[in-house]
Design goal:
Layout lengths: L8 H52 L13 E2 L5 E10 L4 E7 L12 E4 L4 E3 L8
Antiparallel strand pairs: 1-2, 2-3, 3-4, 4-5
Length: 132
């Protein structure tokens, strides 16, 4: 009697089905994790910018002094967010800045846009409460 080696078609199809099921679960979970990890980039950029504004206010007694070299409207390091002034903007006594998601980060609807103002109030446009 001659014994055959290898896999049957049914064994191969079962393996493909198992791998497909695992991929269908793992890939969205991984993408969600990557989006959550990119939130840190927005928080770092906003707090760093707020520190620059506070140094400006300490030195010139105004957040919007022309001698302050605070740059706005720039992408974060991983380009997942764009940092800009909020609708309230930057004036002598107050500032309001925000990090707006771009690209694939727009799918992170739990937190959405991060906002920070001169009073230190941190908010998000999403429904999640643990973003900051």
């Amino acid at each position: 009697m001659h014994r055959q080696r290898g896999f049957s078609l049914i064994e191969l199809m079962v393996t493909v089905a198992i791998v497909g099921t695992l991929a269908a679960i793992a890939i969205p979970s991984y993408n969600s994790y990557v989006r959550r990890s990119k939130r840190a980039d927005a928080k770092v950029a906003l707090t760093g910018l707020a520190q620059q504004y506070e140094r400006c206010y300490t030195r010139y007694n105004a957040y919007n002094n022309v001698n302050c070299a605070v740059a706005l409207n720039f992408p974060t390091q991983n380009k997942a967010y764009t940092i800009a002034a909020d609708a309230a903007g930057v004036n002598v006594n107050d500032f309001a800045i925000m990090a707006t998601p771009t690209g694939d980060q727009v799918k992170d609807t739990a937190c959405g846009t991060f906002k920070l103002n001169s009073a230190g109030v941190k908010t998000v446009t999403g429904a999640a409460t643990n973003c900051w």
